[in-house]
What does this fold into?
Amino acid sequence: MLNINHLSVTYHNSEFATKAVNDVSLAISQSEIVGLVGESGSGKTTIANSILDLLPEKTEIAGKTFFDGKELSKRTIQTIRGKDISYISQNFYTSLDKNIRVGKQFDLILRSNTTLNRKARKEKICQIMKELNFQNVEEVLSQYPFQLSGGMLQRVIIAMAIVLRPKILIADEPTSAIDSMSKNSLLTLLAGLKEKFDLGILIISHDLRIIKDYADTLVVLYQGEVMEKGKNSNIYNSPRHPYTKMLLESKPDFKKKVLREKKLLRVKQKCVFSPYCPECNGVCNSDIKAVIEENYYCKCNVCKY
Ligand SMILES: Nc1ncnc2c1ncn2[C@@H]1O[C@H](COP(=O)(O)OP(=O)(O)O)[C@@H](O)[C@H]1O
Ligand code: SF4
Ligand SMILES: [Mg+2]
It folds into this structure.
């Protein structure tokens, strides 16, 4: 349904250029959760913003994105954004106006995008809120955003994002501002919506351990490049890329420790992960060749040879 082919993104500002994404390809199908994971700064939000044409004007973009077989252009995305492809941004708190009651903001979405009358709009809002497990719909709608808890606010935002029945939902770090109990129930909720509405969902997260239980497909990103990509069940059970292995083992201090050792060895490899890679050896000196199998990709010479 949504295909990103060989996307590269370079930000330009007055002093320097930052290559944030380098040759990334990924696809999201109907009824599929794709987990895009990688540490902060690896290019996840840039990929989301490129799908939705939300990147700053001067940004250099290469590659193509297709939705339902048609290439997305600046013109076509205008009609698709918010409707067929819905987006919950990383700063979802700021996407609501704190001075306007939740119900009014919700109604505005339907007023701007449908011809439904007031009663029908209200019915639609209540119906979708119930799908999102709200018991006290009227009470929530009558409140201001700051009166709701983080988890509740996040559910309201999801309800708003899917009320127009999109085919794709992109959720950027949806669990970042909520407690760990709520994280799992939120992801369970998203998984339920996937089934109920045949939604294709891109969940962006810096925490592989949280989304591994919910994603059908994983895309592991490091410094703007895909390190490993494939069925979640395969990658989770037997990760092949050293970076994925580290994410699953969660070694938060791996950078400091390994970099120190590598510096001593003065190793200079072509792989972006080599300064931190515990498996780095002689084969990493040559150009990196990816392992490409059906529904699987791994950018590592040790896996290749
Ligand atoms: N508007 C921008 N201008 C310049 N550099 C940017 C901009 N937005 C992001 N970057 C840089 O691009 C890289 C990827 O950022 P981002 O996509 O936000 O990563 P993530 O979402 O994985 O944390 C980072 O190095 C970040 O500093
Ligand atoms: S190519 Fe070498 S340095 Fe890069 S991830 Fe694989 S083993 Fe590590
Ligand atoms: Mg981000």
Q: What stands out?
A: The CA atoms of residues 44 and 204 lie 7 Å apart. Residues 96-164 form one domain. The two ends are 34 Å apart (CA to CA). Residues 180-197 form the longest helix (18 residues).
